[in-house]
Each structure stands twice: as C-alpha cells, then as structure tokens.
Amino acid sequence: MRRFEVALILVAALAAGFTLYLWKVRPPWFERFRYPLHYSAILVERARANDIDPSLLAAVIYSESHFNPTAESRSGAIGLMQLTPDTAKGIAVRTGGTAFRLSDLTNPAINIRYGAWYLHLLLTKYGDERMALAAYNAGQGNVDRWRSAGLPVQFPET
Q1: Which of 16, 73, 89, 124 has its CA 20 to 30 A from that of 108?
Q2: Is the pLDDT of residue 127 over 70?
Q3: pTM, rounded to two decimals
C-alpha cells in the first residue's frame, strides 16, 4: 500500500472511532450541538411561570415542531408547540387575551406562552406526565375516552 492509502485508512478509522465515542459517551457539548435549544430565554421563562420543567417544555417543542415556528400539521396545528387555532383561541380567552389572531401562533413568544399554559393545565388535570403528554398530542377527549374504557394510548404517534 502507498502511504496515502494507509493515511486515508487511518483517518477513516479515527473518524469512525470518534463518532462511536460521541454516540456512546454523549458529552454535553455534543448534545447541545445535536439538539440546539432555540428560544431558550422564552422557554425557561414560560416553564418557570407555569411550574414546568424547562427540559420537558423543550422536549414537547422538539417533538411537535423541531423548533420550527412556522410548522403546520395536517390537522391544522401551527407553530412551535403545534396548537390548533381553536385551542389557542380558548387559551387566549382564558388567560385574559381579547384579540387573538391566527398569526399569533407563529410568534414564538405567544406560542410558547399558550403551549406552556396548556401543558400545565393538562399536567394538573391528569396528575400524570404520560397522560398529560398524550392529551397534549391526541386531545383530552381521546385520552378521557381511553382512560374510562381502561385502554392504553391508542395512537401510535402519541
């Protein structure tokens, strides 16, 4: 083998080893790179205001929209926390808002404020993080029906 081929194999082996190290050890700097925390100031503020672990709130946002403030689902949910317009309008009314606009859902500060408030409501109602998250994703009506029928969560994506 030529020196170039040996060097190339050595570099490839080192890269593979380093990649394996990162996936197994997962140092904090790698996790921050892999899962960047966007809107952290708003997220932490709203989590504290609603007595929610900021990591849980960040996980919901990541799961719902991958931190895309203009994300839209097939079911009509919009924004970082994927709120439907009807749900968001209800939250706005219940939290003292008077002039809800659809564009509010693509505003990260408003979307996180509404979503954190709603998640807190569900955590309080169900007293169980798993069921609250299921209700956040699948709707309270579905979760209430599943619970009353003694069924587990029925939607695979939930």
Answers
A1: 124
A2: yes
A3: 0.78
